[in-house]
Design brief:
By secondary structure, this protein is an alpha/beta fold. Helices cover 43% and strands 20% of the residues. The protein has a single domain, classed as Rossmann fold (3-Layer(aba) Sandwich). Bound molecules: adenosine-5'-diphosphate and guanosine-5'-monophosphate (5GP).
Length: 189
């Protein structure tokens, strides 16, 4: 008999720290683990699919949804709007499994206010130099966006001590195992 308790996990960290990579690896090991698809006003990157990576919205549509109370939280991040739709959280909670929200630090703190037992997990890069090299290596950002994201990283890192757990993503296998162990611990197995 399973004694797992479904939990809401919120994952944040500077752009390029490896959040998306770690979440994909952990979800490959745990097929039931849900992930909310956020809404954003940023343009899709090559290969990103609407409704899969994000719900890509224009600014007017995003503003209308804000007015309608469609978001659990939303924030301005790196020059665009991002938000977690109530419908996405409900869809995943209805499935009865744990759920990951991969959102920025402002959103994470807002979620914690609304869902007091949400588990906040911060993903740290091993160093500022490695963060820069990963952002450049990913090849998705312009030089201007890279500088903006690196400038914001410092402010984000300063909030890591408000999180329940911190994972340093140095070696990818080690960090994946750590994240997976944290999820197991909070689910109680
Ligand atoms: P984020 O979602 O936090 O913005 P990504 O998951 O997109 O970050 O990772 C940024 C880049 O760094 C990607 O090119 C990814 O392949 C790479 N990466 C992620 N984790 C590691 C790691 N532990 N070691 C080396 N490269 C990594
Ligand atoms: P990216 O543009 O690299 O996909 O994401 C940039 C930042 O936006 C990341 O820190 C990511 O976690 C954050 N983000 C993505 N979705 C949401 C969301 O729904 N709400 C908030 N507050 N931040 C989000």
């Amino acid at each position: 008999m399973s004694s797992l308790t479904p939990r809401l996990f919120v994952i944040s960290g500077p752009s390029g720290a490896g959040k998306g990579t770690l979440v994909a690896r952990v979800r490959a090991e745990r097929p039931g683990l849900g992930l909310t698809v956020s809404a954003t006003t940023r343009a899709p990157r090559p290969g990103e699919v609407d409704g899969v990576n994000y719900h890509f919205l224009d600014k007017d549509t995003f503003a209308r949804l804000v007015d309608e109370g469609a978001f659990v939280e939303w924030a301005h991040v790196h020059g665009n709007c991002y938000g977690t739709l109530v419908s996405e959280v409900e869809r995943n909670l209805d499935a009865g499994a744990s759920l990951i929200l991969e959102i920025d630090v402002q959103g994470a703190l807002a979620v914690k206010e609304r869902f007091a037992d949400a588990v906040l997990i911060f993903i740290k890069p091993p160093s500022a130099a490695e963060l820069r090299s990963r952002l450049i290596g990913r090849g998705t950002e312009t030089p201007e966006t890279i500088e903006l994201r690196l400038a914001n990283a410092e402010r984000e890192l300063a909030l890591a001590d408000q999180y329940d757990e911190v994972v340093v993503n140095d070696d990818l296998d080690t960090a994946t195992a750590e994240l997976s162990a944290i999820i197991s611990r909070y689910e109680g197995n």
